[in-house]
Amino acid sequence: MSDSKINALVSPEGSLEILSTFEVNRLKDRSEGGLYQLFRQCALAVLNTGVETDDCKTLNEAHADFDVRLVPQPRGLKLELINAPAHAFVDGEMLRAMREHLFSVLRDIIYSYSIPLSAAGFKRDEPEGITNLVFHILRNARVLQAGRRPDLVVCWGGHSINEREYQYSKEVGHQLGLRGLNICTGCGPGAMKGPMKGATIGHAKQRVKDGRYIGLTEPGIIGAEAPNPIVNELVILPDIEKRLEAFLRTGHGVIVFPGGVGTAEEILYLLGILLHPENADLPFPVVFTGQEENAEYFEMIDQFIRNALGDEAASKYEIIINDPERVAQTMKQGMHEVEVFRRAKQDAYYFNWMLKIDPVFQMPFEPTHERMRNLELHRDQPAHLVAANLRKAFSGIVAGNVKESGIRQVEEFGPFEISGDPTLLEPLGAMLTEFVAQNRMKLPGSGAYEPSYRITDREA
């Protein structure tokens, strides 16, 4: 791909509310309290869709001369792009998908960071306020559609997967599309793109005109997992915790493909919530699936879960190997059970209000060396708290692997140290070692993986 760059004036595509002078000024503000750097970072990621990189720091350094400016117009707003990647354009015109994603970024950053400053009910340090914020961001993005029956399948899995695994995820998406089900992923490449691509074919065969390919991301990860062009509903949540909550509030079931630490983080978040006693009777279909060659991978994941969280956690999911049709049938049946349950409880189809999420899963975890060392990784606590703390450990490793802030910390202070109960950490270490061996930590071709973590013995 050519390294050439282009300057352009871009008009809105998709939904964008009229901006106030206050909002425009915050977007232009290059100080620490302003939104310019955040917007620029996310805009650059969107414009690099299709580029094989999962390193935010490297991406920003390669495009240090990129700039984005707001240009007020009599009938709205345009964006002036300076030194934008040329591959985002065809014959001088920006690809519609990228233009749409660009203004989705603008919409969500403005809404997430401006509205809560003045509106009641957006208390970021209270559980109800956090859920309220997630709801309003999704509603503002027009993701929540009243009256639509449960049909949204969340697909999780690695951005760094091999071609066979990608094709399998695509076939699962195809089978889901044939059954009229829609797809929600983390919006990036690999196992996030495959199900969407397959579903487009299934939807085409069934003449589904309004297929939904929802991508949920957050500023820290978007540079490593730029939205794939199939995404037609992109939402940027403020942080990983709100992103994960959005998956479970809007989705009606989850399919997990092979992945690395990011996928493990998602699994622990999901199981930690489903283990809460108040969610015991809540129907929420979960399937782990892959090809025959992935059977050992899922056996490893299953054993890790049983060791860390117990057999009850393992009862929350089904493992289906090499059978895309059965995966889709299981999800279709699960959608029916969700619909019956929510109708009986008079709960909304479009937002899972009844799902109980413990505050420990909602409060943002910003990994630092001190916080990673002090994680409570022991068994003397309820299973859902074990899951919560293991989730934070994986979140820190993800940050050290692909997020600019995490990469810089590891470069300056060395790998994050993880310590605790050996009966938890030995299986954790073994699983991480296997992720490295299977090239699930970084994209192929990005060089030898240097671990962003080190498992140590905690002194008594």
From TrEMBL:
EC number: 3.2.2.4
One GO molecular-function entry: AMP nucleosidase activity
Alphabetized NCBIfam families for the sequence: Nsidase_PpnN
Gene Ontology cellular component terms for the protein in this record: cytosol
InterPro entries for this protein: LOG_fam (IPR031100), LOG_family_nucleotidases (IPR052341), PpnN (IPR049788), PpnN-like_sf (IPR037153), PpnN_C (IPR021826), PpnN_N (IPR027820)
Main EC class the enzyme belongs to: hydrolase
Residue ranges constituting the Pyrimidine/purine nucleotide 5'-monophosphate nucleosidase C-terminal domain according to the UniProt record: 335-455
Pyrimidine/purine nucleotide 5'-monophosphate nucleosidase N-terminal domain residues: 9-112
Gene3D superfamilies to which the protein is assigned, alphabetical: 3.40.50.450, MoCo carrier protein-like
Protein name listed in UniProt: AMP nucleosidase
Domain of life (superkingdom): Bacteria
Reactions listed under catalytic activity: AMP + H2O = D-ribose 5-phosphate + adenine
